[in-house]
Amino acid sequence: MKKYDELKVFCKNTNEYINIDGGESLIDLYDTIKGRLDLKGDAVCVLVNNKVEDMHYPVYAPKHVEFIDISSNAGYRVFTRSLCMVLYKALNDLYPGKRLCIQHSISNGHYCQIKHAESFLTPEVIDRLKERMVQIVDADMPFLRRERLTADVIEMFSKQGLKDKVRLLESINQLYTVYYKLDDIIDSFYGPLVPSTGMLKVFDLVPYESGMLLLGPDRHDFTRVAQWEPQPKLFKAFTDYINFNKVIRLGDVGELNHAIKAGYAPLLINVVEALHNKYFIQIADEITRRYHEGGARVVLIAGPSSSGKTTSSKRLAIQLMTNYIVPKVIELDNYFVNRDRTPRDANGDYDYESLYALDLEQFNKDVTDLLAGKEVAMPTYNFKTGEREYTGKTLKLEQGDILLMEGIHGLNPELTRLIPDEQKFRLFVSALTTLNIDDHNWIGTYDNRLLRRIIRDHKYRNSSAQQTIQRWASVRRGEDKWIMPFHENADAMFNSSLLFELSVMRNYALPILQQVPSNTPEYAEASRLIKFLNYFEPLDEKDIPSTSLLREFLGGSSFHY
């Protein structure tokens, strides 16, 4: 009798149990059944018991497996991380000693710079790097996963000049560390890579601002490279905060952890909160200037979910009042059409995120009348009956008043098509995270906002992390359709991220995420976020002021929501 006669894995892709001998990797299993898999391309990773692993994962016990291509968010992240290591390899081959920094996502790609050599990336250098990347991809080199004592990995990274990774590993106190080897270099990532470089044929590397943009496949057509376009206002919002990070010498998680352990957290919190306050003052002053020049009668605040729009609008209102301007608030939700006229999404559910869930004609008429000095009957929306109601509430703009509106469609020209542009001031709010895990691992702005939302939904809406994660893909689709295409219309951008917030949110989010059942699809995302948060030294919230934007999610705010 064979030792592993009863060893089986259940493959979700084919909905069957498959016999294995034991000890082989999942890429071996994939090679035998890939002709029967309904994938949009090659599998780049695998869900093992609902947790993302690389294709070389060895199987010694019964498992539930699902092979993943790049059409999923998890698969696309694996592809992107792998491209980043190829870029690092190309830079090391051509220009040894140069330090690659992958700073943030923008314009459908990832913005990269060379540390301490900002003028190094000429078009000629970028062309050479791209050519070398193509050669590495054509060579189909394997990404070799390794795991060793962290002390040994620290020594290896030190020899390779990766001080940022050494700093991070020294701050998190884990016994073993996973790293990847590609030919003669090693690197670490907070997730798996593809099996080999030959799977990374669809990419581009182009000059962008003062650096370069690394582009992967288009999310709608994986056979072609994602298209990019200039986003100067968003880029400046990122760059302003990156420059601030440089001034306070805090650009990665290792440096943040060191600052917290050294007792600098209260000072850090005060400085970062002061920066937020400075930007609110600057934006309010610009609105005031335009107001007195005959424009800026309507302030429109827009941004994606959990970006802190509500607190931003309240803090901006306070600053406007110190400039002797009184904000009068209009709630866009009160202009929903009656439920029987509400658009439906692809699943047949009411789509309240659609622009056309709003009565645009009535809204534009009311705002136009208000700007003309008329008194206007203001509606309220009854969410129980699904109908708009008028209860006698009116609004009239007096001398020194300004309209202030917060909503996801604020930057969409269609929302206020009858209002002259010179009378609008449009503010885009989002958590544009500029803190990196290390030079080769950025922190996605979506992750920052998702963690905020998980905490808020659990605290105020009685929703589990599983429910929030389950809805997140739909939320992001709505943002990509109704918000992100219009952010360059903004007159100002406010970065609502706080350098210390992930260390604080760690304390709240980890217990909530740990409740996600392992037998659910959402467990993969919960596991990824748990691993991510464990990079951060925990920080107590006691020094965070009651006016902080973070209080919108944690509680303890002096504002009423």
Strand residue percentage = 15-25%
- Bin the helical content: 25-40%
- Average pLDDT reading: 95
Class based on secondary structure composition and strand pairing: alpha/beta
| Large-scale geometry | globular
**Widest β-sheet, arrangement of strands:** 2-1-5-3-4
> Roughly how many Å is the radius of gyration?
25 Å
Distance between the termini: 67 Å
Biggest pleated sheet: 5 strands, mixed
Poorly predicted regions are none
Helical element count? Answer: 15
Number of domains: 4
Number of strands: 19
Spell out the key features of this protein.
561 residues, alpha/beta, Ubiquitin-like (UB roll), Threonyl-tRNA Synthetase, Chain A, domain 2, 4 domains, five-stranded mixed sheet, five-stranded parallel sheet, 15 helices, 37% helix, 19% strand, globular
Structural write-up:
- Helices cover 37% and strands 19% of the residues.
- It has 4 domains: 8-69, Ubiquitin-like (UB roll), CATH 3.10.20; 74-231, Threonyl-tRNA Synthetase, Chain A, domain 2 (2-Layer Sandwich), CATH 3.30.980.10; 234-325 and 400-554, no CATH class; 329-398, no CATH class.
- It has helices at 26-33, 73-94, 123-138, 150-159, 163-172, 232-247, 253-261, 265-292, 309-322, 360-371, 445-460, 465-482, 501-513, 523-533, 551-554, and strands spanning 8-11, 16-19, 45-48, 51-53, 63-68, 100-106, 109-114, 144-149, 176-182, 185-187, 204-208, 211-215, 298-302, 326-331, 376-382, 387-395, 401-406, 424-430, 492-495.
- The longest helix is centred in the middle third of the chain and has 28 residues, at 265-292.
- The strands form 5 sheets. Strands 2-1-5-3-4 form a 5-stranded mixed sheet. Strands 14-17-13-18-19 form a 5-stranded parallel sheet.
- The N and C termini lie far apart (67 Å).
- By secondary structure, it is an alpha/beta fold.
